[in-house]
Amino acid sequence: MKKGGVGGANTKTGLAFELKTDLPNFISKQSGYEVVENDFDIKLVKRTGEVRKIKRSSTARWIVNFEGEKVAEIFQKHGLYRYFDEVSLNYKAIISKKLLPDDSIFVMDNNTVFIIEKKTQKNSRKC
User: Fold this and answer.
1) Among 37-41, 107-111, 118-122, which stretch is predicted with the lowest mean pLDDT?
2) Residues whose CB falls within 8 Å of the CB of residue 71, separated by 6 or more in sequence, listed in order
3) What domain of life does the native source organism fall in (predicted)?
């Protein structure tokens, strides 16, 4: 593990930690919750005018249902900004730099996005 937290997601231990603390996986194991992949590119077929949803190769968006009702959406990295673009939110007017959070969750009930950054801590306390 690198001290100072620089490049943690790029190290073997950082990547293993992020996979072990996967938010969609954790929520799907909670009673009453279901997590459904929802990461598609929208393509317009010029010839026919048909709109197609094509599943992305690397999922970064999920819908969270509780007892059958949609309650939240989970995003990883660029997935959050694809959602902002879909709902026409001008995030560039709110933040000065594009952040790539490990996880974020939009809770619809209180209209709030929670940004989650994962870090491991090495206990260096001396007695």
Assistant:
1) 118-122
2) 64, 65, 107, 108, 109
3) Bacteria
Residue 93: inside a domain: yes
Domain residues for the domain of 67 are 22-116
Q: Supply 125's token pair.
A: 């306390």
Number of domains present in the structure of the chain: 1
With respect to residue 127, please indicate whether it lies within any of the assigned structural domains: no
- Burial of residue 66 (CB within 10 Å: 0-12, 13-18, 19+) is middle
Determine, yes or no, domain membership for 41. Answer: yes
Ramachandran category for residue 96: left, alpha or beta (phi over 0 → left; psi -120 to 50 → alpha):
alpha
Could you give the CA distance from residue 63 to residue 108 in angstroms, rounded to a whole number?
11
pTM: 0.68
Within-domain flag for 47: yes
